[in-house]
Amino acid sequence: MSAHGPIPVLRIGSTLLASIQVELRDTIADAFQEDILKMIAKTGATGLVIDITGLEVVDSYVARVLGDTGRMATLMGTETVVVGMRPVVAATLVRMGFRMEGVLTALNVEDGLALVSDLLVRRHSGGH
Amino acid sequence: MPLHYFMEKLNLDEAELQSRRNFFEITDDDLNRLAGLRGFAEKYIDDIIDDLYQLILGHPEAKQQFTEHVTLVRVKRAQRDYFLGLFSGRCDLAYVEDRLRIGVAHERVGIPPKWYLGAYARYLRSIFSRLLIALPEPAQAHAAYQSVEKLVAFDTALAMDTYIAAQLDALARHQAAIRELSTPVIRLYQRVLLLPLIGTMDTHRADQLMETVLLKVVDEQAHVIIIDIAGVLVVDTKVADHLLKTTEAVRLLGAQTILSGISPTIAKTIVNLGMNISAMHTRSRLADALELAFEIVGKRVTSIAKKPAGTPPETAQDS
Amino acid sequence: MAPCVLSSEKLVIACEDDVVIARRKVRLLAETLGFDPFTTAAITTATSELCRNTWIHAEKGTGLVEQISDGGRIGIRVELRDDGPGIADLDRVLAGGYSTAKSLGLGVSGSRRLTDEFRVDTVVGRGTVITVVKWKRPT
Question: CATH classification of A2-126 is 3.30.750.24, yes or no?
Fold first, then answer.
């Protein structure tokens, strides 16, 4: 397990699981993006699950950083899923007019890992 | 309901107080006159309150209201306070608060306006007759009576406002309860929810709907929720917009929405909104939505092969 | 009738941490006043957006978090003011974007969408004052 900064990142096979428990201020969000992309490059992870069950306030900046991180990881070939968004967060983002595109979501870590697994299987069988 | 709630609901600040005093024509002269009659009040208070209770006890329906001994005692004490308050020489926010306190007590006990409005009228008559005795000069008695009448009118307005505020509050709570009942989220199957919407859908309800849906999806960890809008009479662009926002929010949570019961009219409204609906699941018929929901959770609805008539039913076998 | 102010707390925006501090103040106030979670999230996020806006574009600003009341309703009013560059092309900014647009656009328009009352006074080259109000939902 590695903890670059306040966000712990677990390795589960070739998938990284990042659990965001702290309130994200801008620089921490930016640092998280940097760190996780570096980790993907370093470990060659094929999956990334970002667990935001612990986030109760997500404003447009943080949401954008998370979304960007997901899209960047996907570009690097890592299947990314954001899991555990809280109802108040989802409602607030949508009401603000924020859209998180190009990032997959799942209800919880278990579903997220299963989704990553499915995607990787499809990737291998489909030829990609 | 707390006192300060009423103060706020009725906007009772200095400005409002002055406005009311002006309209009810309560001058400092009136208040001074009333303060000067304090002695009069204390002398006749018992008589006057007895007048009131004669009235109540002599009236079968009114008497029934007060048959509880506890109620009678509590109200009688409140009446003494009320009566003496008329001659305090004050008509400030503290006075208003005292009056509201009495109104709140009445409301809590559940006394309808006709009784206390009748009581105010009874007071006025009782005070008038005693004033004529206590102040032999007619001009003086009339001036005093006018001052009392003004203040009682002022108090009556407060009593009515309190009553109405309490009723509106109860109404609001009932409406909230109805809204709750009319948004029933049904657990159709494991991790499949169904929300049949019925009736009128205004933007406020549609907005609240999103919250109910999101909370339920997370609570039940549902993979998919079917929102059936066949029973909604009118879907205007604002409501459609809220529904689409709801599906987007559900996606952020990690679940999927199927909108079913899409009529041609609603289809037009949604397309004309110009929003990106390519990622949305929609169906015209609920049955089709159900099949899709099952597919999403990895189940399929199939027909059970028919057996020829006369075949005995299968019995469970230990394998 | 102008709403009356029941309590008032000053805000200072001079660094990134101040955005978080302001956010927490508003959140605490909303929870103390018994706002439901969705309404709390709305005003908290709106505050965060506006404070960040001030921090990024003006680098320095002040604000107020107030508990207000208006004929039975209680609400939270947040005001942010700065002597920054002002907002040019206000209409476009307010229209905002339903997209991952630049921070300025979504922050200001987003906070408008999340609140019940929204007011902006801005002069290019002089500064900006933005005030938002969120009322507690009647139960």
Answer: yes
Residue-range domains of chain C with CATH: 4-135 (3.30.565.10)
CA distance A67 to A81: 10
pLDDT in tens, B136-169: 888 999 999 999 999 999 999 998 888 888 888 8
- Structural domain for B108, as ranges: 3-179
Could you tell me if B250 lies within 8 Å of chain A, comparing CB atoms? yes
DSSP conformational letter for A76:
T
Cβ within 8 Å, pair A98-C44? no
Residue located via tokens 């009932």:
B174
Radius of gyration of chain A (CA): 14
Domain boundary among B156, B179, B202: B179
Which residues, 6 or more positions from B172, have their beta carbon under 8 angstroms from its beta carbon? C138, C139
Give C82→chain A minimum CA distance, Å: 20
Nearest CA in chain A to B249: A90
> Would the CB atoms of B250 and A112 count as touching at under 8 Å?
no
Q: Is residue B306 included in any domain, yes or no?
A: no
Whether the CB of A58 is below 8 Å from some CB of chain C: the reply is yes
pLDDT surpasses 80 at B291: yes
Domain count, chain B: 2
Buried b (16+ CB within 10 A) or exposed e, B5-33: ebbbbbbbbeebbeebbeebebeeebbeb
Q: Would you call C27 an interface residue with chain A, using a CB distance cutoff of 8 Å?
A: yes
Q: Is residue B217 part of a domain?
A: yes
Of C20, C44, C114, the CB nearest to A96: C114
User: Which residue, B157, B179, B201, sits at the end of a domain?
Assistant: B179
pLDDT, tens digit, for every residue of C90-132? 777 777 653 333 444 478 888 999 999 999 998 988 899 999 9
Do B124 and B232 have their domain in common? no
Same domain, B190 and B161: no
Residue C13 parent element (H or E): strand C4-13
Report if residue B33 sits inside a domain. yes
Q: List the single best residue of C69, C73, C99, C137 to mutate versus B (max B Cβ within 10 A).
A: C69
Neighbours of chain C (3+ CB pairs under 8 A): A, B
Q: Which residue of C has its CA nearest to A65?
A: C100
Residue boundaries of the structural domains of chain A = 2-126
The ipTM is 0.92
**For A60, which of C38, C41, C110 is closest by C-beta distance?**
C110
